[in-house]
Amino acid sequence: MISVKNLSKEFNSQDEKQRVLKNINLHIGYDELITIMGVSGGGKSTLLQIIALLTEPTEGEIYYGDYKVDFKNERYINDYRRNNIGLIFQNANLISSLTPLENLIIAMDTKRSYKEKVMKAKSLLDEVGLSKKYNCNVTSLSGGEAQRVAVVRALVNDPDLILCDEPTGALDSQNSKRVIDLLMKIRNERKCTIIIVTHDREIGELGERKIQLREGEIHEVDNHL
Ligand SMILES: Nc1ncnc2c1ncn2[C@@H]1O[C@H](COP(=O)(O)OP(=O)(O)OP(=O)(O)O)[C@@H](O)[C@H]1O
Ligand SMILES: [Mg+2]
């Protein structure tokens, strides 16, 4: 599904070059559950942002199937991301001037009719126990509720790939469990690939593939050892 080849990323900070990712090679297949852990500053978010086509690598290539990503072709990659990749971050990042229902609808691709969009958005919110919150003010949602909206927003276009950067980082343990259970349910029902960056060891253990990022290099934990 995705191949990352010889990928490196440098940032320039005060005349000094910082090499955050070093020659990363990674193949990600369909229907995989991958967790990524590692110390703060190790490059986890940077790697996820590159896979999400939000940041251009300094060197190396990414293939989505046979398509070699051209980071210069912004319009194409924006469309590609919107249609194929679901993104979930530590904070829900909902649009506060819109209702939960509208936050989902605005993230949908343009192919569907408005009526279809509303139906789909409602059924997703129903799935996460937010039937009573379709039209509320998003600022009135609790952190856990807002994050559940963010999770289903990532699903509106039925992506093959869901990328989560510390999806429970801002939640208490009960809400954290609810979000993780939801991600596991999504994975069982939809057969998509999910990558979760986390500092939580228990969540890290859920990965069928467990990756450690240390000083910009990947170390995959061999489950068979
Ligand atoms: N846009 C940027 N400009 C300059 N340096 C950056 C930028 N983004 C990240 N970095 C640097 O790259 C390094 C890796 O950052 P990254 O956010 O990928 O780490 P992380 O593993 O996600 O850490 P955390 O666990 O704290 O989220 C850090 O030293 C950071 O300061
Ligand atoms: Mg990070």
Can you tell me about this structure?
The protein is α/β, with parallel strands linked by helices. The chain has one domain: Rossmann fold (3-Layer(aba) Sandwich), CATH 3.40.50.300. It has seven helices and ten strands. A six-stranded mixed β-sheet has the order 6-7-8-3-9-10. Helix 3 crosses helix 4 (114-127) and helix 3 (100-106) packs parallel to helix 5 (143-153). The longest helix has 18 residues, at 173-190. The protein is globular. Adenosine-5'-triphosphate binds at residues 11, 13, 20, 38, 40-46. The site of adenosine-5'-triphosphate has 11 residues, from strand 1 and helix 1.
Give a quick precis of the structure:
With 225 residues, this protein is of the alpha/beta class. The chain has helices at 44-51, 74-84, 100-106, 114-127, 143-153, 173-190, 201-205; strands at 2-13, 16-28, 33-37, 59-64, 67-68, 85-88, 161-165, 193-197, 209-214, 217-221.
